[in-house]
Design a protein that fits this description.
Helix content: over 70%
Distance between the termini: 72 Å
Radius of gyration: 28 Å
Number of helices: 15
């Protein structure tokens, strides 16, 4: 009896669905583990890469003016350092002025607490002694957790500042080796028709558009919020406007986190609750302009992912990379979509992550039809 011949392998693909599922699951688990364990290094390289993409046109322009590559890369990185320390100096000066007025704010807070205690005693018949005992009990527990949180915040701030000092150095070397990186992506064996190099170039364009748009949007939000707070007559209006603009980098959550400080200032420094409503109105009006006019016009479709993908990306990258994950979630997901769009097997996933193109208006459609060449008559 002749034994049946074994079936030859089909191009190295796994035909067993269970084996394919296990392989994909292990790949996902391994990728997430690497992202978590190498978080500091990956965030450092990713941020440096974004800044190098941003400064690349400036560096190339200096080279075209006969400037040596090392000098062009160094000047571009120095500009990044000056911009960073300029922002830090401005915010530090504003918060130093804010710190001088903390005793007055503390006394205003104590007076507000006294008014609230009198209201609770009159309305709900809870004596102020019981209120103070309950408040002290809660504050003692809060002090224990707050001390640990303060130490963690101080450590994280020091680590973030040290990382920020390294970013310009890595950016300098990335600009210095830009030619070598381009040759590397050109020599990849899997680079079908320049696919790898094309993906990197598209990521560079996306990075430049995203970070430029973020800076411009932050400037608009800072100006609009500062003007609104100045009209309301709030103290530290510029500081609160700049803080709200910086937190605006975090999608969805950032604008309302930036509203907490002006709300507290309005409660402590003003007697009427209308100022609190005014702060909410300023933030809501600024976000309406930002979401409907400023961000679509400035940032455009540089990161073309849909709203559901954005929300899931914020949750996922925030749980993996923490605060930096919230900031980088949108551009990282946009870059992943660019990779998916270039690989035929993953193109459906790129379509799932993306957003539908905006429909053309009737006027644009008529103009396109009018500009199209007329078909030639058939020869008789």
């Amino acid at each position: 009896m002749v034994e049946p011949r074994p079936t030859p392998p089909t191009g190295g693909r796994l035909e067993d669905p269970l084996a394919r599922y296990v392989l994909v699951l292990l790949t996902v688990i391994g990728t997430v583990a690497v992202l978590v364990l190498a978080k500091d290094l990956l965030v450092l390289l990713f941020v440096s890469g974004i800044f190098s993409f941003l400064l690349l046109p400036l560096c190339q322009g200096m080279e075209r003016r006969r400037m040596p590559l090392w000098l062009a890369a160094g000047a571009s990185s120095l500009l990044l350092v000056l911009l960073f320390f300029g922002i830090i100096s401005f915010i530090g000066a504003q918060y130093a002025h804010f710190g001088k007025d903390l005793p007055a704010l503390q006394s205003a807070l104590m007076s507000k607490i006294a008014v609230g205690q009198a209201y609770l005693e009159e309305r709900f018949h809870i004596s102020q002694d019981k209120q103070i005992a309950w408040l002290q009990d809660k504050l003692s527990g809060l002090a224990e957790t707050g001390g640990a949180a303060a130490v963690s915040l101080f450590t994280a701030t020091g680590a973030a500042f040290a990382t920020a000092l390294v970013i310009p150095i890595i950016t300098f070397f990335l600009l210095l080796m830009k030619g070598r990186f381009r040759e590397f992506f050109s020599r990849l064996r899997s680079n079908r028709d320049g696919a790898a190099l094309r993906v990197v170039e598209n990521i560079a364009v996306l990075s430049r558009k995203w970070i430029r748009g973020v800076f411009i949007v932050m400037l608009f939000v800072a100006i609009l919020d500062s003007i609104g707070f100045l009209v309301l007559g709030l103290e530290y209006a510029i500081l609160m406007g700049v803080t709200a603009a910086l937190l605006n980098v975090i999608p969805y959550l950032g604008p309302w986190l930036g509203a907490l400080v002006p709300l507290v200032i309005a409660l402590l420094t003003k007697d009427s609750a209308m100022f609190v409503l005014g702060v909410v109105a300023v933030i809501a009006f600024t976000q309406f302009l930002d979401n409907n006019f400023i961000t679509p016009k400035v940032v455009g479709s540089s990161v073309s992912i849909n709203a559901l993908t954005s929300m899931i990306a914020l949750i996922a990258w925030g749980s993996i990379w923490g605060f930096m994950g919230l900031i980088l979630a949108i551009p990282v997901t946009g870059m992943i979509k660019l990779v998916f769009d270039e690989i035929p097997a993953l193109e459906p996933w790129g379509y799932l992550l993306g957003e539908d193109p905006a429909p053309r208006s009737a006027a644009k459609a008529r103009k396109a039809v009018a500009a199209a060449p007329e078909p030639q008559a058939k020869a008789k």
